[in-house]
Amino acid sequence: MRIGLGFDVHPLVEGRELILGGIKVPYERGLDGHSDADVLLHALVDALLGAAALGDIGQYFPPQDPQWLGISSLVLLKEVWDKVSRLGYRVGNVDAVLVAERPRLAPYLPAMRENIARVLEVGLEQVGLKATTTEGLGFTGRGEGIAAFVTVLLFLDKEIPRDL
Ligand SMILES: Nc1ccn([C@@H]2O[C@H](COP(=O)(O)O)[C@@H](O)[C@H]2O)c(=O)n1
Ligand SMILES: C[C@@]1(CO)OP(=O)(O)OP(=O)(O)OC[C@H]1O
Question: At which positions is a divalent metal cation bound (predicted)?
Answer without folding.
Answer: 8, 10, 42
